[in-house]
Design brief:
46% of the residues lie in helices and 8% in strands. The protein contains 15 helices and seven strands. By secondary structure, it is α/β, with parallel strands linked by helices. Helix 3 packs across helix 15, helix 6 packs across helix 14 and helix 9 packs antiparallel against helix 10. Strands 5-4-3-6-7 form a five-stranded mixed sheet, sandwiched between helices. Strands 1-2 form a two-stranded antiparallel sheet. Among the domains are: 32 residues, no CATH class; 188 residues, no CATH class; 102 residues. The chain is extended and about 120 Å long.
């Protein structure tokens, strides 16, 4: 019998000697090894296909149609859509008489159908809001020249300091910054809207060039935001891709409930994270990205939403790994539930704290058992990684007031992600610098509930008239963490 080759298209060969049996066994053993490798590869690919926004870091916009159809939905309440019975009614408040532009009076007929006269007893106000017909304003500055009659020396008039040297005034430059940074329009859309709404035609180059002085004027306010966020007691950090042409950069954010700071960097590593964090000494809330791990462990809180997504991925595996993943997932969700109840009680209920400590011990014990049980498999390595990161998940227990998730940073990045999808990215280093500056000012103004356009207009006016910007945002001082434990 010749060397055995596995050919499933023919009937199985029947070896006649012991040597031939050995050759068949060796061939089958090699085929079994290849089968195991292919099986592992198929399982890996199936797991990748099953990755979605609920069990990985993929955004919901990248989910497949099948994953979107299978998303968990809230249970129907049975109530009709719209306002519910007994809800608080919201009506537009009437504008005071001093703010009205015009008052028109409408009287009833002077005589009733019965022949009697009609006496006016009062009126019912009906206010109509409308937009005026708008047009841009053009001011021509004529600079005259002269010559001395005796010596022939030339003399020329000078523009006042408040007059810009370019063709755009502070209102127009602030409006362009508002359209790009607040409403995420591309430069082409800004040019189209400028012509449609105001009747002004500016080239893409002129609109792009207007960002250069605005970038310089935003610098002092941008630095103020960076200093304020690094003095905070709690800050959230995150990062997302930023494209310059075909090159991949990263947009980083360090944010609190009052201020949001952005920066662009070519790297996603620890060097970039150090530049972002700077001298920040407070408690840092992040996902499980290792670039932030130089921050002290006792002042670093990992996001439980990211942990649950990781456990969802393990729970989706077959066999014992999936069973262990589901068990760990139940513990994690119960921990988040108790943590929310503890926060809602304003950290005054020790019962929830005792439950959280018990869940912490249980979670560690289950992770250790799963790590031993699964050895060097993917599930075992994941459990050992979670054990290494374990202390960073429980910082909120020692510092009440620290959130369990990194949603604040992810919500801060969302406007930029939308902008990135609807624009043509940045095309130069200037664009890389302008985007984090305008986003930092816009997002901070939104958190402070102050007008973005008026802020930008004030900054542009000061930059044009004074040459420097003295305006600063009204950022409140940081407060001490309530109930913090040593």
């Amino acid at each position: 019998m010749k060397d055995f080759e596995l050919d499933l298209s023919r009937p199985p060969p029947l070896p006649e000697t012991v040597e031939e049996c050995h050759r068949v066994i060796k061939a089958l053993w090699r085929a079994l090894g290849e089968f195991q490798q292919l099986k592992a590869r198929v399982e890996e690919l199936e797991e990748q296909l099953a990755c979605g926004s609920d069990n990985s870091s993929k955004p919901p916009s990248q989910d497949s149609p099948k994953q979107r159809a299978e998303r968990k939905r809230k249970r129907p309440t049975g109530r009709k859509k719209g306002a519910q019975a007994g809800h608080v009614k919201h009506e537009r408040a009437l504008v005071s008489e001093a703010e009205l532009d015009e008052i028109r009076h409408h009287y009833p007929q002077g005589r009733c159908g019965c022949g009697g006269s009609v006496e006016i007893k009062g009126y019912r106000p009906h206010q109509v809001f409308d937009l005026p017909q708008i047009r841009y304003q053009v001011v021509e500055h004529r600079i005259y020249e002269g010559r001395c009659c005796d010596c022939g020396r030339k003399h020329r008039g000078a523009l006042p300091s408040e007059v810009p040297t370019g063709q755009m005034g502070p209102g127009l430059m602030a409006w362009i910054g508002l359209m790009t940074g607040r409403y995420h329009l591309s430069l082409r859309e800004v040019a189209a809207l400028l012509e449609e709404q105001w009747g002004l035609k500016f080239s893409l180059g002129a609109i792009s060039e207007s960002q250069l002085p605005l970038q310089a004027w935003l610098g002092p306010v941008y630095n103020q935001i960076g200093e304020a966020v690094r003095k905070a007691l709690i800050a959230h950090a995150d990062e997302t891709r930023h494209y310059r042409g075909r090159s991949v950069y990263w947009l980083w954010t360090l944010t609190t409930d009052e201020v949001t700071y952005f920066m662009t960097h070519y790297s996603r590593g620890k060097g970039a994270a150090k530049v972002l964090i700077g001298d920040f000494q407070g408690i840092l809330v992040t996902d499980r990205h290792g670039a932030y791990n130089d921050h002290p462990e006792a002042q670093h809180q990992y996001c439980w939403a990211h942990l649950i997504r990781n456990l969802e991925r393990i729970a989706g595996r077959k066999g014992k790994a999936g069973e262990d993943g589901k068990h760990l997932l139940r513990i994690a969700r119960l921990t988040v539930h108790c943590g929310k109840r503890w926060q809602q009680s304003r950290y005054r209920t020790d019962r929830y704290r005792r439950r959280l400590i018990c869940l912490k011990d249980t979670f560690r014990r289950e992770l250790e058992q799963a790590a031993r049980r699964h050895g060097d498999s993917k599930t075992g390595r994941s459990c050992r990684k979670l054990l290494g990161d374990f202390p960073r998940f429980w910082t909120f227990l020692d510092h009440p007031g620290v959130p369990m998730t990194n949603n604040t940073a992810e919500r801060a990045l969302r406007p930029y992600v939308i902008w990135r999808k609807t624009s043509f990215f940045s095309q130069s280093h200037r664009g890389d610098c302008f985007r984090p500056m305008i986003l930092s000012v816009v997002e901070t103004c939104k958190r402070l509930e102050i007008g973005v356009y008026q802020t930008l207009r004030t900054i542009c006016a000061q930059g044009m008239q004074q040459g420097e910007v003295t305006f600063r945002l009204p950022i409140p001082e940081n407060q001490v963490l309530a109930g913090a434990r040593p």
